[in-house]
Write a structure and sequence with these properties.
The strands form 7 sheets. The chain has a 7-stranded mixed beta sheet with strand order 16-17-15-14-20-21-22, sandwiched between helices. With 501 residues, it is α/β, with parallel strands linked by helices. The N and C termini lie far apart (58 Å). The relative contact order is 0.13. Helix 14 links the parallel strand 20 and strand 21. It has 2 domains: 238 residues, 2-Layer Sandwich (Nucleotidyltransferase, domain 5), CATH 3.30.420; 219 residues, ATPase, nucleotide binding domain (Nucleotidyltransferase, domain 5, 2-Layer Sandwich), CATH 3.30.420.40. Bound molecules: adenosine-5'-diphosphate (ADP). Adenosine-5'-diphosphate binds next to helix 11 and helix 12. The site of adenosine-5'-diphosphate has 17 residues, from helix 11 and helix 12.
Length: 501
């Protein structure tokens, strides 16, 4: 058994930086949080100040360690916003530009060029991804082309590239380690997830020199020690994983076929597909769920752009609710036969329709329609979109002979809404299980680090310890479920752009 009573998890997210202490039972016993400044230099551009992130990490860790004592920490785990791209000076750890955040669209023209040049098949086959500005590769290429002298300095080995985990590892170890884990590497669009190596062809096309890339390590294992100067003790860093992969780990999705969905601003569904990379026929992403002892476990991932964001729109733009939580009581008052559908294609339609030109709409309004009906339709849209996504994912999994679980583990802010979760179970026709801890992402990082030092038991023990706080079983009749879903597909067909097939 390891020394220490807690694992320290660092959760560096898009909007905040948090430190959480977890005890042996996986319970969060202390939390500190600092919000993160969003920098918008131009429309479609989003940046973070990496130095601000580092200062926040120091602050939140010191805050929770002041309560527990650094000597009481068995290991440190890191989870982070993925794809966000940092470049820093190797000699000093100083960032050489603002970090370009995953949401940033400035590299759309470069992505279009890659598409025209026919890189799509190579990207899908090696990285498991699609060509999109979302991923790090084109952001890094942009920095190399636009930050004065960066390309020359990078070629001579003076500059490090990394995602946020990598930058934090470098800072925490006082520059001793330039590394990342396989889950984060898998989101750069420079990493061959089949062989676990950087892809020379993509690096060459994008002008990325190998010397600036981090060493890729297991998600669970040795990431060196936190330099003593930071927290007064040399704490071992033993786990690193990107946020969605960490959440799946925190949800104990250890077996092939298991699924989790996180309902925040958007929704991310991740399915464990086991030891083989699964190719998707519906542009779902293939990625690495975790890597342990050199062995990779793969995942399929799909996203819904507008989940909680639809509720924000109902609140902030339409003004039909004052708080997100109010949506629950209103939905309960909605007319179940209203026939109102809200298709939240505010950013086009994502998987499996992939119609960027589609526009959002509320359809099926009658004179009797009320704001309650519209709010219910907004919540129900999240359930329909989840079904769209799961259907596509299960098809991909079936082709590879993987039996998908018929229960969905869920977490995130929207899971507080009992009406929405019941409707999700009803529209899916399967059980929805809400995680006991709202901190599944941080817990996943803690599990990785804790398992590495023997603080937590093996997978089977963690799987047994997993217990939902609430379970929703489907109550709707099959006939009603299918009728409603047909209505959704009909509503979706009405918002498709003419360009779509
Ligand atoms: P993120 O991590 O993306 O910021 P959270 O997991 O904190 O998201 O969830 C916040 C989102 O969940 C917001 O978009 C909010 O509108 C939505 N949300 C929060 N509470 C509720 C609720 N009771 N009903 C419906 N949506 C909710």
């Amino acid at each position: 058994m390891s020394k220490g009573s807690y694992v320290l998890a660092i959760d560096q997210g898009t909007t905040s930086t948090r430190a959480i202490l977890f005890d042996e039972g996986g319970k969060a016993t202390a939390t500190a949080q600092v919000p993160l400044t969003q920098i918008y230099p131009a429309p479609g551009q989003v940046e973070h100040d990496a130095d601000e992130i580092w200062r926040a990490v120091l602050q939140v860790c010191r805050e929770v360690l002041a309560e527990a004592g650094a000597g009481n920490i068995a290991a440190v785990g890191i989870t982070n916003q993925r794809e966000t791209t940092v470049v820093w000076e190797r000699a000093t750890g100083k960032p050489l530009a603002n970090a370009i955040v995953w949401q940033d669209r400035r590299t759309a023209p470069l992505c279009a060029a890659l598409e025209r040049e026919g890189w799509g098949a190579h990207v899908a086959e090696t990285t498991g991804l699609v060509i999109d500005p979302y991923f790090s590769a084109t952001k890094l290429a942009w920095l190399l082309a636009n930050v004065p002298s960066l390309a020359e300095r990078a070629a001579s080995g003076e500059v490090c590239f990394g995602t946020i985990d990598s930058f934090l590892l470098f800072k925490l170890t006082a520059g001793r380690l330039h590394a990342t884990d396989a889950t984060n590497a898998a989101r750069t669009k420079l990493f061959d997830i089949r062989s676990g190596t950087w892809d020379a062809r993509l690096m060459d096309r994008l002008g990325v020199p190998l010397v600036m890339l981090p060493e890729v390590r297991d998600s669970q294992g040795d990431f060196g020690l936190v330099a003593e100067e930071h927290f007064g003790a040399a704490l071992p860093i033993r786990g690193v994983a990107g946020d969605q992969q960490a959440a799946a780990y925190g949800q104990a999705c250890f077996a092939p076929g298991m699924l989790k969905a996180t309902y925040g601003t958007g929704c991310f569904v991740v399915a464990n597909t086991g030891a083989e990379k699964v190719a998707s026929a519906t542009r779902m992403l293939s990625t690495i769920l975790h890597q342990r002892e050199g062995r990779r476990t793969y995942a399929l991932e799909g996203a819904i752009f507008m989940a909680g964001a639809t509720i924000q729109w109902l609140r902030d733009s339409l003004g039909v609710i004052a708080t997100a939580a109010e949506s629950e009581a209103l939905a309960e008052r909605a007319d179940p036969k209203s026939g109102v559908y809200l298709v939240p294609a505010f950013q086009g339609l994502g998987a499996p329709f992939w119609d960027a030109g589609a526009k959002a709409a509320i359809v099926g309004l009658s004179r009797a329609a009320s704001k309650a009906d519209i709010v219910a339709a907004g919540l129900e849209a999240v359930a329909f979109q989840t079904r769209d996504l799961l259907t596509a994912m299960r098809q991909d999994m079936a082709v590879s002979g993987i039996a998908a679980a018929h229960a969905l583990r869920v977490d995130g802010g929207m899971t507080a809404n009992a009406w929405a979760m019941q409707r999700l179970a009803d529209i899916l026709g399967e059980t929805v299980e809400v995680a006991a801890t709202p901190e599944t992402t941080a817990l996943g990082a803690a599990y990785h680090a804790g398992q590495a030092v023997g603080f937590y038991g093996h997978d089977a023990a963690l799987a047994r310890a997993w217990a939902p706080s609430r379970v929703y079983a489907p109550k709707m009749t099959e006939a009603e479920r299918e009728a409603r879903y047909d209505g959704w597909l009909e509503a979706v067909s009405r918002v498709r752009s003419e360009a779509a097939p």
